[in-house]
Amino acid sequence: MRKIYITDSTLCSKDLTLSFKEKIEIIRQLDKCQVDVIDLPAIVNDKVDPLLISTVAPLLHFSGLSLDVGRDVNLIEKAWTAIKNIDKPFLRVSLPVSTVGMEYGYGLKARTLPEKLTELVKECKKYCNDVEFVALDATRADFDFLISVINTACEAGANCVTLCDDAGIMVPSEFLAFVKSVSEKIDENIKIAVKCNDNIGMAAACSISALTAGANAIKTCVATGEIAALDTISAVIRTRGDFINISASLKITELNRAAKRIEQIINPKKSESAVDVVTEEENSILLDINDDIGAVIAAARLLGYDLSEDDEQRVFTEFKRVAVKKSVTGNELDAIIAGTALQVPPTYTLESFLINSSNLITPSAHIKLKKDGKEIESVAIGNGPIDAAFLAIENIIGHHYDLDDFQIQSVTKGQSAVGNAIVRLRSGGSIYSGTGISTDIISACIRAYLNALNKIVYEEANA
Predict the structure, then answer these.
(1) What is the pLDDT of residue 267?
(2) Cα-flanking dihedrals φ and ψ of residue 31, to 5°?
(3) Which among 212, 292, 338, 424 is least buried, having the fewest CB atoms inside 10 angstroms?
(4) Mean local confidence (pLDDT), 316-330
């Protein structure tokens, strides 16, 4: 049976706005699934991005990391310095090969692209044995030019070529024929990977079809929906791998839970309500105010979390706050972990709030926060109690952020249900998502707002 390789490109999505710790958790979950390679975008922030790579290095037990080097040959050494301590490092050169992509996307001409590509690949090869050339928009390129460019990359030292269907409009038989034509024209020792856009819902089918045409690897994603979904590819390999004579290193038993965790991090709005996702492990957990931190962390491990010491303390503190009012189920503990762990260091913390609201008075909110050890407070009125609370917070921080989205979800059922609030704030063209949980829905909303606010403050401080 032929072994194929799975690369996950979730973190390369341009639409994601994630905190430092959220990126770490996504990488950790992908490693638990045993994807072969995790793609990272090119370094943008010289401080934060290399720190992310050095932080996850000791956490990786299986996966390699592939770092895009950008288009400036002078920055390749910096990229290698950031990734060289990874057990399985890869450097990635991504350039368009279609006329539209070259000229309008990158300002390149067909006659100058081979020289630029050779320069980048050779520089990468000076540092790293595994160099990948990503042929962007390959399916819309002139075929003879595409083959020439691929051979140029291979002669310069690339040992993997990724064929991208960025248009995402090919059907499986069409893409199979395309990949087969390419594989027949290049060195048989070069590994071929495919990356298919899911514009018409054919990404997974096209990717699988390519394996029968000579491809050795598939690029996938979780939750973003841009290219072939990791869980879909995994399901095909699990159920039909024998028929198409392929296998992969994916740890199937971990994948569904990991995909759920990543979905909760990336898109809480679209992730399943915890009411609908109850596993056997979650059903077996029931904690109360008398349980100590050891019992809570043991339950977290049963749910699949491996928390840092700081996160353990944060989770336990939040658990005690909720457990004062009710017993905590596995489902609710899962929501507590998602809302309190894997977060940025809090600049603002909630000390207290007082809400006055009825059908006879204008709703008002008195909010008291703590920043750098000092208490700051404000009072505001609004169209409702939650609006008043958000306005009071804005008075404290002295800034207004556009509220892009606001949602309230139920984590559990019944009169003592725990509510999960989702707040999305817009800052500088980016969206920052925050979550908050509580048996008091106004408390959950305030905590969600602060969660999003702290991400904005952290990102601005480290920009």
Answers:
(1) 77
(2) -65, -40
(3) 292
(4) 88
CA dist 445 and 432 (Å) reads: 15
- Provide the CATH topology of domain 2-266: TIM Barrel (3.20.20)
For 55-93, write each residue's pLDDT tens digit: 888 889 999 999 999 999 999 999 999 999 999 999 999
Is the pTM of the predicted complex or chain greater than 0.70? no
- State the pLDDT confidence band at 411, using cuts at 50, 70 and 90: low
Distance between CA atoms of residues 373 and 2, nearest Å: 59
Q: Report CA 296 to chain centroid distance, whole Å.
A: 26
Instruction: Measure CA 339 to chain center.
Output: 16
**Distances 244 to 210, 236, 238, 247, 369 between C-alpha atoms, Å:** 11, 10, 11, 9, 59
* Equal CATH topology for 2-266 and 348-461: no
The strand pairing partners of 365, in sequence order, are 355, 380
Cα radius of gyration (the chain) = 24
- pLDDT, tens digit (0-9, with 9 covering 90-100), for 249-274: 998 878 888 888 888 888 765 544 43
What number of CA atoms fall less than 13 Å from residue 122's CA on the CB side? 9
Beta bridge partners of 435: 422
Class of domain 348-461: alpha beta
Can you read off the two tokens belonging to residue 54?
Answer: 């050095």
DSSP string, 272-298: PPTTT---HHHHT-EE-TT--HHHHHH
Partners of 419 in the β-ladder: 410, 438
Task: Reply yes or no on whether the pLDDT at 407 is more than 60.
Answer: yes
Residues 116-139: what's their mean pLDDT? Answer: 97
> pLDDT at position 270, please?
53
Q: How far apart are CA 35 and CA 28, in angstroms?
A: 11
Burial class (CB in 10 A: 0-12, 13-18, 19+), 343: buried
